[in-house]
């Protein structure tokens, strides 16, 4: 228990439902997730230019700040810095996390994708939280690493020195398993973005999270 409390205090992660955008997501989708009760937002767009992503982040930040939701930028350090976002999320192939930490402002978080237990030993101190997965295979990220399942998720979460968020193929019915694996949150793309009612889908995930 003591270790759990220490981990929570050290991280600026907001626990709960973390919405990661699909390519080309408009601001309305992000605001729908916000209204539905998402705890954090990640702008992830493999197609947008840095300038487009920076402009999107700047347009979203006032509303997200007012609602207390951190905005994290996927992959693009320059965008996170230029937009004054709340953090950056990088994967295993996205460069040296220690260099990203050195470049980020002191108030900015760094999230790191962890796809296997072995990735934890290479993780520098200062990483704020981990995205662990993919738990399941998912069409949203065609080049994903082999799925780790909920057992792999629990193994990583137990060993991690910072909070973990589960990601990859997760739906409302998986919230309890992610919580039982020790996760501080559940990160989803399609469970929100592909629903005909993204706000309602977010609300259902949040309700499941709070009940779990
Ligand atoms: N990283 C690992 S799986 C994944 C990312 C960005 C995509 C998750 O998308 P979905 O639609 O929630 O499976
Ligand atoms: Mg990446």
From TrEMBL:
It catalyses: 2-(2-carboxy-4-methylthiazol-5-yl)ethyl phosphate + 4-amino-2-methyl-5-(diphosphooxymethyl)pyrimidine + 2 H(+) = thiamine phosphate + CO2 + diphosphate; 4-methyl-5-(2-phosphooxyethyl)-thiazole + 4-amino-2-methyl-5-(diphosphooxymethyl)pyrimidine + H(+) = thiamine phosphate + diphosphate; 2-[(2R,5Z)-2-carboxy-4-methylthiazol-5(2H)-ylidene]ethyl phosphate + 4-amino-2-methyl-5-(diphosphooxymethyl)pyrimidine + 2 H(+) = thiamine phosphate + CO2 + diphosphate. Mg(2+) binds at residues 75, 94. One of its GO terms (cellular component) is cytoplasm. It is an enzyme of class 2 (transferase). 2-[(2R,5Z)-2-carboxy-4-methylthiazol-5(2H)-ylidene]ethyl phosphate binds at residues 138-140, 169, 189-190. Condenses 4-methyl-5-(beta-hydroxyethyl)thiazole monophosphate (THZ-P) and 2-methyl-4-amino-5-hydroxymethyl pyrimidine pyrophosphate (HMP-PP) to form thiamine monophosphate (TMP). Its EC number is 2.5.1.3. One of its GO terms (molecular function) is thiamine-phosphate diphosphorylase activity. Pathway: Cofactor biosynthesis; thiamine diphosphate biosynthesis; thiamine phosphate from 4-amino-2-methyl-5-diphosphomethylpyrimidine and 4-methyl-5-(2-phosphoethyl)-thiazole: step 1/1. Residues 17-192 form the Thiamine phosphate synthase/TenI domain. This is Thiamine-phosphate synthase.
């Amino acid at each position: 228990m003591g270790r759990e409390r220490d981990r929570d205090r050290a991280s600026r992660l907001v626990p709960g439902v973390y919405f990661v955008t699909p390519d080309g997501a408009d601001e309305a989708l992000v605001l729908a997730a916000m209204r539905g009760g998402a705890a954090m937002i990640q702008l992830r767009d493999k197609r947008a230019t840095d300038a487009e992503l920076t402009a999107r982040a700047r347009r979203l930040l006032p509303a997200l700040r007012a609602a207390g939701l951190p905005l994290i930028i996927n992959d693009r350090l320059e965008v996170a810095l230029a937009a004054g976002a709340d953090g950056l999320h990088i994967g295993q192939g996205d460069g040296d996390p220690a260099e990203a930490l050195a470049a980020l402002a002191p108030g900015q978080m760094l999230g790191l994708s962890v796809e296997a237990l072995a990735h934890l030993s290479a993780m520098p101190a200062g990483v704020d939280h981990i995205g662990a997965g993919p738990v399941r295979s998912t069409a949203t990220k065609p080049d994903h690493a082999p799925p780790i399942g909920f057992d792999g998720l629990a193994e990583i979460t137990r060993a991690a020195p910072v909070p973990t968020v589960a990601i990859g193929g997760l739906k409302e019915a998986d919230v309890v398993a992610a919580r039982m694996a020790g996760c501080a949150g559940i990160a989803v793309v399609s469970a929100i973005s592909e629903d005909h009612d993204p706000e309602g889908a977010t609300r259902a995930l949040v309700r499941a999270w709070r009940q779990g």
